[in-house]
Amino acid sequence: MDVGLVGRERCFLNAAGIGFDAEVARRVSEQRWRGRGAVPYVYAALRTLGSFRPVPLTLTVDDRPEELTSLLIAVGNGRFYGGGMCICPGARPNDGVLDLCVVGDLRPHETLRALARTFSGRHVGLPKIAQRTAERVRVEGPPELLVHADGQVIGRLPVDIRVLGGAVGIVLPGGTAPAAMEGSGSMETRSAQSKWGKAREFASAVVYSLIEADYPQLAARAGEAAVGRPAAFSGAYPAAYPGFPVLRDAWPNGVPTETAPEPGARTFSFWGTPAGEAPRLLCGMLKGYLEEQGFEYHAEPPPKVRVVFNLIDPQRPKAYRRKAQATFVVSLAELSERPADVLKAGYPMLVRSMSNLLVLFIPDGGGMRTHFITPEQGHYQLAGPIDEDGYLDEFYSRLKPIITSQLVIDNVFHRDLPEELWNGDEKTEQLFRAGRRLAELNLLPAPFPLEEVLSPADLRQLKRLYNIGGLSYGNLSARRDQATFWMSASGVDKANMRTVGRDVQLIKGFDAERNAMVLSVPPGIPPRRVSVDAIEHYLIYREHPGVGAIVHVHAWMEGIRATEVNYPCGTIQLARAVAGLIREAEDPARAVVGLKNHGLTITGPDLDDIFERIEGKIVPTVPMS
Q1: CATH number for the domain harbouring residue 368
Q2: Alpha carbon distance 576, 580 (integer Å)
Q3: Which of 32, 118, 271, 535 could anchor a disulfide with 575, C-beta 3.0 to 4.6 Å?
Q4: How many domains does the chain have?
Q5: What angle do the packed helices 108-118 and 39-49 form, to 10 degrees?
Q6: What's the half-sphere exposure (Cβ side, CA atoms, 13 Å) at 298?
């Protein structure tokens, strides 16, 4: 029979779910009175009904994304869950596909009506409820939204689910196999098929009963089938995954590499209407130039387009709504006069347009000069005007690192942090003190107030794609042991990092298959994504055992080596470039390297050593070129 696989960590034989049903599963697990059958689930559902509301999600079914508002999404390998609710009436455990029940924006009274019909499977005919099949499913949305598998909460969004066809075998008495019964129309065969069908139904019922009772034996077998070989499990089963071992990728063994280009990796589109002559002229020249570089133009951006040139009005910049995390947005705008402070005028446009780069055309001496504004508050310009020979070559040399880079910013959260670390340890206390010291040295610019410049809809979209809580600058980390390190989370106040799982995260590995950092987090705290530079710190710690701490700040020191290319934060290209300079340093364990137009990465045996070396030598202004 088939098995469903959530990420690489959890198999299920019956059903997984996101949203309302996962919240119900959480309440059932916490109820003192558990009961049997459907009663505890119905009771928990009624309790959940008053507080849970549909949420905006991005659902990708076999590489076809769509945005919707949903109460729950159930992914079924079997038909039933919740003590007898027929959530996916068309599901079969041996058909090679998963069945989806997508419940839309239901009001509480509509949810009650659907709940009553779920036991007979008649909810499928109701408005706002759709059924479909898939081999692969990805759901993105608010990072606090729960996910369950076979009735047990296993994590939060985003989540990837796929089917493993025929992963578990069922042995029947007498050695009867279904293959021997196919293709024949004799009475004997039809009789055998009938017996096989009854035996199959009985076997399925036994399997589901085992899952309901939390027997780990069958689950472990399914886990082996999920990876095609016996899984190399490390240690005891974490409490967050009862009976199902975590398929770990120990970080000393996982090496991130640049993967083969995905669909859409060299595609581009233009979006919006030019508000000025310079953006109009650039778009006309850029289309043919990029096609000569091997890029493919699309008049309408496909879901996984690589780069979108967003033509914005400086007074009313509008965002291009990405459909995929790997889409880079370059916004183009023209000003009628030069502002007193280009960065101060341009940065809100970059944020409002939700861009990876803002190209700003500003009048200068009778012509238009090209200025670049980056998310790291960087500002630099091209030497020549737009109509000068060689302009496109120089423009593309600045653009290429952005539109050809590979992000490594996803996180996989394992709720297996040992209890003795829930409140941190001496290393997290060192990070807390170091964060305050950065603030005292005036090396922590105030986090940019996203909520003040983005609409609620745009802010939700940004959080759905990147799971961020805000824009902040700089990060710190400290090695805990040879396999793990603590690091500041994304978007937090670095001067007040106190809560493990929210302000500080424990990184324990890299998941090469999912291209994501693996974090160990405590229960009961909605985890925040770790800093985007985690992949850079990971490579440095992995290669240099003598490095005990790393500080990254948007500041500068004279006489240091720097990366030659301005790669974006959170990309494997930037991480490898920085790691390469650390490797070439006289003492990699006590190195200072520059990131072009960005800042510094500093290594040391501990945080105190780093601050002793940089104090009095560091300046808060990064040179731009």
Answers
A1: 3.40.50.10300
A2: 6
A3: 535
A4: 4
A5: 170
A6: 15
Q: How far apart are CA 547 and CA 611, in angstroms?
A: 15
Domain assignment present for 310: yes
Fill in the DSSP letter of residue 178: G
Mean pLDDT, 10 residues at a time, over the chain (625 residues)? 86 93 89 68 86 92 88 94 86 88 92 89 88 92 92 91 82 45 34 47 40 32 30 27 29 46 75 92 93 93 90 91 84 94 87 89 88 83 86 92 83 92 96 91 59 59 46 81 94 86 94 87 87 93 94 90 86 92 95 88 96 87 71
Using the 8-state DSSP alphabet, how is residue 14 labeled?
Answer: S
User: Which own/partner pairs from 342-351 qualify as long-range (CB within 8 Å, at least 24 positions apart)?
Assistant: 342/371, 342/373, 342/379, 343/373, 343/377, 343/379, 346/371, 346/373, 346/379, 347/373, 347/377, 347/448, 348/453, 349/312, 349/314, 349/317, 349/373, 350/374, 350/375, 351/448, 351/450, 351/453, 351/454, 351/471
Say yes or no: 448 and 505 in one domain. Answer: yes
In a domain, 625, yes or no: no
Domain boundary residue among 403, 430, 461?
403
Tokens (6 digits) for 579:
């790691």
Condensed to tens digits (0 to 9), the pLDDT of residues 202-261 reads: 444 444 333 333 323 333 333 333 323 222 222 222 222 222 222 233 333 445 555 445
Its pTM stands at 0.55
Nearest to 476 by CA among 425, 394, 549, 404: 549
- Encode 495-513 in three state secondary structure: HHCCCECCCEEEEEEEECC
- 526 with 421, same domain: the answer is yes
Ramachandran class of 399: left when φ > 0, alpha when ψ lies in -120 to 50, beta otherwise = alpha
Tokens of 504: 């500080």
Distance CA 54, CA 138 (A): 18
Q: Is there a single domain that holds both residue 45 and residue 128?
A: yes
The CATH number covering residue 558 comes to: 3.40.225.10
Of 304, 252, 307, nearest in space to 283 by CA: 307
What CATH code is carried by the domain that includes residue 65? Answer: 2.60.200.40
pLDDT at 201: 44
For residue 476, give Cα distances in angstroms to 205, 431, 542, 600, 610: 52, 7, 16, 12, 11
Domain match, 461 and 605 both? yes
Tens-place pLDDT, residues 301-344? 988 899 999 999 999 998 898 877 778 899 999 999 999 989 88
Across the strands, what pairs with 76?
15, 99
| CB of 245 closer than 8 Å to CB of 232 | no
Instruction: Say if residues 454 and 397 touch (Cβ distance below 8 Å).
Output: no
The structure tokens listed for 192 are 């055998």
CA distance 406 to 557: 28
Residue 198 lies in a domain: yes
Residue 100 included in any domain: yes
Q: Which domain holds residue 483?
A: 410-614
> Which tokens belong to 228?
């095609």
Domain ends where: 129, 144, 164?
A: 164
Same domain, 469 and 337: no
- Burial of residue 585 (number of CB atoms within 10 Å: 0-12, 13-18, 19+): middle
Q: Is residue 35 located within the same domain as residue 98?
A: yes
**Are residues 284 and 395 located together in one domain of the fold?**
yes
Strands of the sheet with 296-297, listed across from one edge: 296-297, 267-272, 307-311, 328-334, 357-364, 367-373, 379-381
Asked if 59 and 76 sit in the same domain, the reply is yes
Six-digit token string for 12: 């299920």
